[in-house]
Write a structure and sequence with these properties.
4 copies of one chain form a homotetramer.
Chain A lengths: L4 H14 L19 H20 L10 H5 L23 H19 L5 H30 L24 E4 L2 E5 L15 E5 L2 E4 L5 H9 L11 H10 L7 E3 L5 E5 L2 E4 L11 H10 L7 H8 L33 E7 L25 E4 L16 E3 L8 E2 L3 E3 L1
Helix pairs in contact in A: 1-5, 2-4, 2-5
């Protein structure tokens, strides 16, 4: 269904709020090959609409700058040549002001277009573009956090208002689910990515899911039990990574001069919130923790089964905390959505009968179905309207710059 | 069930036949980090019995050389420190004669042990050790082929007798299978690796399987259609590999001075057998070929469903051809076992309820369940008694030094 | 001799003029490990005065920010730990405004200090600091050029006024010099770096020097004669570099869509000035060119012998062209100073009797006396007052982002 | 002057004696890119005669195997394509027996040729070939030592007879030399490499040279004073190497289980000979040691001045010790020849007026005149007849697998 002008404007405006108060300099460098500059995100999401909507369906649309296609195409081979990914941080030009003008130029043309009767195919692409932009909203925050964490001054990306004293996480409970054949994947007319489809049957065995994610306090116990020093707990590739990267704790954990555990956050260096879900752990770490705990990670199908009837509520980017928070005392499953993405045991592969769309947008998801694992649920940096129970996020097993944590599972 | 002395001797003797006629020098270097020297295989398989059987269950067993544990432990962290894998090719000592003496020393002690009433646990480990040695028999051949292929003289590893003129592959037919819940994984008392278990239910959709693997002739069509030059056909990681490795054909394919396609084999450089199954292709290539052909790779569950009632017959190492051969004219599925391992679409992960064995042998399979894909069926370098329908072989998606090919599938 | 306040201010102001009109974003990224961000240069040169002058000799001096020592120490082990060099481009903070405030803070304290009777040792360090800052002035330009050249938009660092039509380079003449023992190295009381001393005797053989540097036009002849494709012309390490870096022309040379040769400059992409000295060539290229031409590079001693009585006149940074220009018609040696640094055949090693200064400033030059070659004369980016006949610049033989060219020599 | 058949045979036979008792396997692998397999040395030195003498001047000479030119050309671009250097260790074929047959084939043809009246140019090339083979004799030993040192079994390359108890090194004395202009470089009609020529004048300042090289005992004092932990002692590139390679002692030094210092040698692991010259140190280490000792390395010109009137006597390969030995009590300079090569402060560059020979042999020395330092004097692995006062050996400053030590110098 074609989004309304208002829906379009809301998503686009939300993006700009994330970089409010940051300078052109803050938004220019690239701190790792897997991350991108803030300015690049602002331009790339705009190019998506220009390339796939306006250039295809606009009337008399004139590109803002013919050269931007080369600069801001991320990975679409079908569209043409592009700037090498590891060199995105060298683009001091266009300036931030020029990128904002680019956004305004495209927004104006999009408003014109959306004011007319739009072909269904265009409407679908606008919808895809808005969900695409929401994905980049999350990346803007996690990439900025990574960049600012490289700075020995540990500056804050954002000043976040004082919170109430963090609550204590409730005790971990186990929630049981029956086995049997279940329908998995997206159903219905609402938007979903191609990788959530087709809906199909999975045979599940009975299982139990932890009521909440693993907390920082629990992770400290893993560290203190020598979890990072015992190869028996790790996948072989994980153990190689532990040694070559010298991992001894989640990303962004540090020890202050007084010996206290602190963590780099979007609000700068902060005391570690012991009852909040552990975040910035890799799949390898999540898997090792589960083995140490005598449990396992859930499959993505188990997770989806458990989440399918829950409301999408939780600590999202809209809350403004921009950090995971302790679970409130409750019954049933807690924090299934928001706070931290949850690593599953499932490699990211195609669902049976999966087909990519024809043309360049067919490159959106399908070609990345190798070497990654599925995460479910969304994080404190995800927009609420972007999430659903069938949503499949995915990253390589050694990555940890996202708000990624874990929830334990066990056989019933 | 504890293997008999005869069974033990047969497997051990088969290993030595594979290196018959090769010198200490031929068996010493290491041509790639993923490969090992022939001499190392001879010693490592021996160490397996020494370490896990004789040292644990032998009476008054004296190790042949206390230092060999360090040299010939492959990857068992629980056993202790070990020689670094990429440096295996620098061990000019022990000499081949010393390694053969090591084998004789261990064989004598094993004969003594197997002549007594052996505890069940020991018997299980002997059985595991024999299957382990069979795996290394295949690796001896593929690693030697890789080493000899690096030599500009392209020497033959073995002189293989003249074959009858290769047959033409029959036309490709499609064999249909119903969907529904099927039991998957090993059942019964006979030996199987831990990764083939537990048996569990998979929900399948109806599918069709090609009657035979893709042939070299068909692969040439893929090349000539520009398959290696079109990013739209490839997974993103696959395309990166095509470019960085400059792949333009399967491994070992070359062009002779007269323009003819030739292939490095265990018998040296040979004309490409057009009707034989394509071999030495990576998962990335197999996946791209299937996409180009408008088909897909089967899942390992589909493959196992199709193979479960077939006899384990085909072109194995015992035939002595040591190369894939064209399928004989036949009905039904052909070449499901032997000739080439068949890449499946399934990442190599644990079956539901999978548990590793306690102790060092628990490292045998489980810790490698990341970043690899399952292959099924066995090859021209596999011992026949080593294979079964539930057998799961696995390699990284970019590897191609095994006898690895593919069979197409499609939704019914 | 202690510099005056005016002298201090002039050098400091000249630095700021070089970044006039550039944004914080322009001055933040780092385009290569060998280059540094503009903002880093502004801060590092300031830190040099803070660390070596104000902290040691100031009265009640308070550091602007205690953490800047870690951020802006370049390579002085004796001073303490420091930010890793390859990560300088990730410092979006301090902001440009903060760095300018840092400069003002130090300048004010320096003015106070220089208004008093300064100990001789402090005066020497102020003088060193100003020459140090002049070195970084040249690096600011060459590092910005490198950064902007990575941008597919090829933006101009500076708008340089239209020049008169470039003159034609005069014909190349040979100027002869006698052999014999000559004094080499700095003499007298004026400032010189430690590496120009002690003055000592070198036995020279008679030689001839080209009247002017090799031009772009002459370099094109080298290219068209296959100079980049003939290993016989190159040092072994040079040939390896040609192949691994795929060199086919000097750095920054490109071919326009219409086939014309163009060059990235501080004024953006410009037509190649055929009669200007070739620039941005490595030692390896200079050496190969000389071999191709049947000549050789001069030693640094020959160069100094030829330059010792010449005035320091030429095309320097003060002229504002910021690019090499064709030699004016003249007699004798032309362009010995300015336009392009001239690679010599001399490895950068200590003069006999060389001693480093005690303490951290002893690390200034001495520890780099390995693996580099001496360049002489100065460039279009060098401040005139920074240069003299005994001045030794030095870079690794594969580097080419400086304004580096060559002048031929031959035995008499 | 054309060597006699006897001279030819003596050198060729000496080569074979060095590999006596070693197997094909021992002579096949390559333990580092800078080293070569023993079998490769045997073949390459043979190819040198085949390519440059027999193919050019032989009558009806038939190559042993046309493909050997590709395999055994080391680095002569003018001769044609060649096997990549880092892959020399993968050549299990030709076998050692075939390589020995190759040697016999070429030796027979050389005997025929040398039995005739040989053109002067051919005679010069035969002489060059014999000196070339002598260089490889030393490399055979140092490369074998490196290979065997990688083996955790630390096997001996050779069994060396029990020596008399090692003598104590005499006290270090200083020998003074006047300054002034001295002739440097080879003079006379006897053989010398092109890089020792032309003879030319160097202006020297008065200097003193240590009477003997630095000993292992003295090096221990350097280690215990923290020499490997103090960046102030090191060149910048040297310090980077210390850290990246984790150097804490010379190559091949180890600590035995009982805490004693031991050293891997051609005779296996041996107690460290405290009074023998330190060996297997890099230029970086030699330079740091000299700085720590308050001295410096001599230039190659100072060394040659001091050695020019000394007889070529010492501990060479012919002595059969194959390890440096303590200096005998004596007066004057000791151990200038033999025992260990002595690093000098001189980069390896061309002498004034140096010209390479035309054709492929012009690649012998000249193209390596970059990034290396000169060593003088010869070692316990050098043939005595190969050495002279003007001889220039050269290696990269971080290399230490040769028998390389140092002798201190100071200004007079």
């Amino acid at each position: 269904m074609t989004p309304s002008i208002d829906a379009y404007r809301q998503v686009r405006a939300a993006t700009l709020r994330l970089v409010d108060g940051l300078s052109d300099a803050d938004l220019t460098p690239q701190s790792a090959e897997f991350a991108s500059p803030g300015k690049w995100h602002l331009a790339h999401t705009t190019w998506f609409f220009e390339q796939f909507v306006l250039a295809a369906f606009g009337t008399n649309y004139r590109r803002f700058d013919e050269r931007f296609g080369f600069l801001f195409n991320s990975y679409y081979n079908a569209v043409g040549a592009r700037h090498e990914r590891p060199r995105r941080g060298l683009l001091t030009r266009p300036t931030l002001a020029e990128v904002l003008a680019y956004r305004a130029h495209v927004d104006a043309a999009m408003a014109d277009l959306l004011g007319t009767r739009v072909p269904a195919q265009a409407g679908t692409l606008v919808e895809l573009g808005l969900h695409h932009e929401q994905q980049h909203q999350e990346l803007i925050l996690t990439d900025l956090l990574h960049l600012f964490a490289q700075n020995p001054l540990r500056p804050a990306v954002r000043v976040v208002g004082a919170e109430a004293a963090p609550a204590a996480a409730g005790p971990l409970r186990w929630v049981a689910f029956d086995g049997g054949n279940v329908e998995t994947g997206h159903a219905g007319e609402a938007f979903a990515f191609d990788n959530e489809q087709p809906r199909h049957v999975i045979a599940l065995r009975p299982f139990r899911l932890a009521s909440r994610p693993v907390t920082n306090r629990e992770w400290i116990a893993f560290i203190e039990a020598g979890g990072y020093a015992d190869p028996q707990l790790w996948l072989s590739d994980g153990w190689d990574t532990v040694q070559s990267q010298r991992w001894q704790a989640p990303l962004y954990w540090e020890t202050a001069d007084d010996g206290a555990r602190v963590q780099m956050t979007l609000a700068g260096l902060q005391p570690l919130a012991l009852d909040a879900p552990v975040s910035h752990v890799s799949f390898f770490e999540a898997d090792a923790y589960a083995r140490w705990a005598g449990k396992r990670l859930p499959t993505e199908f188990e997770w989806e089964r458990a989440a399918r009837d829950l409301p999408v509520e939780g600590n999202f980017v809209e809350q403004g905390a921009h950090a995971p928070r302790a679970a409130a005392a409750s019954t049933g499953l807690q924090q299934m959505f928001g706070d931290v993405w949850e690593w599953t045991a499932s490699p990211y592969v195609a669902y049976p009968g999966f087909r990519t769309a024809p043309g360049a947008v067919g490159e959106y998801n399908g070609k990345f179905m190798n070497g990654q694992y599925v995460l479910r649920g969304g994080s404190c940096a995800s927009p609420r309207s972007h999430l659903r129970a069938s949503y499949r996020n995915f990253f390589q097993p050694g990555q940890r710059w996202q708000f990624s944590g874990l929830r334990l599972a066990e056989d019933a």
